[in-house]
């Protein structure tokens, strides 16, 4: 798979409404923006940011590995829910 296809698939997964419920996306971004606002003057901001971002990044790559680049279902990730509709249009 080329880089262009890989990036395209990542964006499809990231922006698909079937991957995360809408309320979860809103809550996630409210928390991120609130942390940016309230902790912007905090001396150890990068430590806090890294402590939050690193587990999320590790979880992303764990799921990506288990699903062979989002091409099969695993755990909460349901391939058919996101890509079946796109491939059969």
SSE pattern, N- to C-terminal: HHHH
Residues in helix, %: 55-70%
SS element count, helices:
4
- Which parts are unreliable, with pLDDT below 50 for 5 consecutive residues or more? none
Structure description:
By secondary structure, the protein is mostly helical. The protein has one domain. It has helices at 3-15, 22-39, 45-66, 79-87. It contains four helices and no strands.
Short description:
With about 90 residues, the protein is an all-alpha fold.
Give me the secondary-structure topology:
Layout (H helix, E strand, L loop, with lengths): L2 H13 L6 H18 L5 H22 L12 H9 L2
Please describe the structure with a list of short key phrases separated by commas or semicolons.
single chain; 89 residues; mainly alpha; 4 helices; 0% strand; elongated
């Amino acid at each position: 798979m080329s880089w262009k296809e890989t990036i395209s698939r990542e964006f499809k997964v990231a922006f698909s409404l079937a991957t995360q419920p809408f309320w979860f996306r809103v809550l996630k971004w409210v928390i991120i923006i609130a942390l940016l606002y309230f902790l912007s003057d905090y001396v150890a901001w990068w430590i806090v940011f890294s402590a939050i971002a690193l587990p999320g990044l590790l979880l992303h790559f764990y799921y990506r590995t288990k699903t062979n680049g989002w091409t099969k279902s695993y755990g909460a990730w349901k391939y058919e829910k996101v890509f079946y509709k796109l491939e059969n249009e």
